[in-house]
Structure formats: C-alpha cells, structure tokens
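Let us work through a complete example step by step.
Step 1: write down the sequence.
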Amino acid sequence: MKFKHFATSPVLENRAFMALLLAVSAAFLWILLPFGGAVFWGAVIAIVFTPVHTRLLRRWPRRRTLAALATLGIVVLMGVLPLALLTGTLVREGAALYQRVQSGETNFARYFEQVVTVLPGWAHGLLEQFGLTDFNELQSRIADAVGRGSQAIATYAYSMGQNALDFVVGFFVMLYLAFFLLRDGAALSRRIRAAVPLAPAHRRHLAEKFITVIRATVKGNILVAATQGALGGLAFWFFDIKGALLWAVLMGFLSLLPAIGAGLIWLPVAVYFLVTGAVWQGVVLIAYGVLVIGLVDNLLRPLLVGKDTQMPDYLVLISTIGGMAVFGINGFVIGPVIAAMFMVAWDLFASAREEAAEDAARDAAQEPVQEAAPGATRPPEA
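Step 2: predict the structure and record it as tokens.
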C-alpha cells in the first residue's frame, strides 16, 4: 500500500520530470557541440543586430521574413566579407614575414641586441638570469616561434580549404540560426523567460543584463579593436615598417585586452627607435600611441563597454583574459557575460535578503498587542 502511494505521489512525478528535463537538455547541448561556435555566433549576431531588424520592421511591419533577410544581408556586407578578405591578406603577410626571418632580412635578435647595449649594468644581469643575452640562440627561438605562428596560420587556412564542407556547413548554420532568431526571436525570448523558474522581476532583470552585456561587449570591443588596429597600422605604414597590416591585425587582436592591448606592439618599436638614434620617430610614435591609440581605449571602451555593462575596468580585463584562456577567441564575449551574470545574480540575492529582513522587521513592529482576557479589570488610570 505504501509503495502504491509512493508510485503515484506528485513528488515522484516531479522528480522524474525534472530528471527527464535535465537529461534531454544535456543531450541537446551534446548534439550542438560540433557546431557550438556557429550556434554561439548565430545567437550573438541576432542579439547585436536586433535593433537594426526592429527598424526595418517599422518600415515593413508585415514582412518579418524580408526584414530578417535584409538584416542578414547587412551582417554579411559589414562583417563576413571584410573578415574573409582580411584573413586572406593576413595569411600572405604571415608567410612573407616568415620568409624575411628565415633569410635574415628581418632579424629580431639584432634589434634586441641594439636595445640591450644601451641598458644599464643591472639590466644586463637581469637579462642574463633569464638567458636573454645569447642573441644567436634568441634569434633561433624567434625564428622558430615565427615559423610556428606562420605555419599555424597556413595550416588553419589549409584545413579550412580541406574541410571546406565543415566550414560551409558551420557558416550556413550560423546564418540560418541568425535568420530565424531575428525573425522569431521575440516570441522565443518570451517562451524562454516564461520557462525560467525565477520571479518575473528577476527574469526580466537577468535577460536585460544578458542582452546588454553581449551587445556592449561585441560592439564595443570590436569597434575599439578595429580602431586601434587601424591607427597602429597607419603609424607603422608611415614609418615604413614592413608587414604593417600584420602588425595592425595583431594590435587589433591585442586590443581586446583592456588597458594593455596595442601597447605590446607599438611600445617596443618606439623604444627601438629611441635607442638606435631615431629619436624623433620614437618620440612621435610614443606620443601617437599614448595620445591617439591609447585615447581610443580610454574613451571608447568605458563609453561602449563599461558604461552599458556597469562593470569596472579591472573586472572587464580579468574576465576578458580569463574567458579567452578558457573559451578561445569566443571568450572575449563569454568572459564578460559570465562576470556580469555573476554580479547580477549576487546583487539580486543580496537585494532579496535585504527585502526579507525589512519585511520581517516591519511585521515585528506591526504585530498587535495581545488583548486582555474578558472580565479582567483594567488598572486604574493615574
């Protein structure tokens, strides 16, 4: 009899349903793993370009499909085609740099040796401890590192060609998912919010923060990286530094890291100019790097990223670096999103505890005084 009662109890049904829900959710994520990057960027594209889609819907209120297709066309023209052209050019620049290093035309060890010769004695001792005074060995290490980097770029490009089917399928999945998320994203978002077992106010706050952080991170970081990379590449082209486009791409990539970013590239070049007698070039490059390239990071990033996400710069930096270490290039979006969700979740938890404490204090203050028993006499008034 007890077993029959247990077998038909609502508790068992709820637990079984939750187990089924978790199992099918895990299985669904498992089958999405081969195209995880495509699915992720499809969702990011839909979130970032939803305002554009909304404006198009105002012009074509009854043509959701046409508005979604037009938005997708804007995405391809603004992002996909320039990125494809840049990747091809970057592969050629990397191969050219590798050839210059192998032929000795570009000798990083010689450049480093010229800098070391003007350093004070204590700096020489410090470099000896790290084994950086054997310039021949250093050149071989640099050549090997450049070779591995160039080989990695070429291998990646070659693998894309060899695995063209996987690349095309992933690209199609990304655009296909972005199209349907743009067209039906509002209804899907309502369904997801309704399914999340949280209070309506908490669901709304978390969803708004999630969307805000993704838009601010993607738009802000990409705009800052593109601007700093272009400005740095322009400076290198002006000073006739070979491989300016390659260095511009590296500066743009490093600009994803707040505060330190592009300075890892242009500052050593400026120091080299100073110690080799090209004083005005070094001074101009330092002034340009600090006042122009650095100003972009100091002005645009807080305005585009920190202001919308309401996250301090140090947290943006740590979460970006940590995210890229764990998730690769996708981490520059995933890291800040996780950090923002962490802040919001704990803020909601603290607010809920404060409200509960205030409600308890209010209930205790408003608790009625126990009435006297019937027939009891009141104490005489003074």
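Step 3: interpret the result. The chain is about 80% helix and 0% strand.
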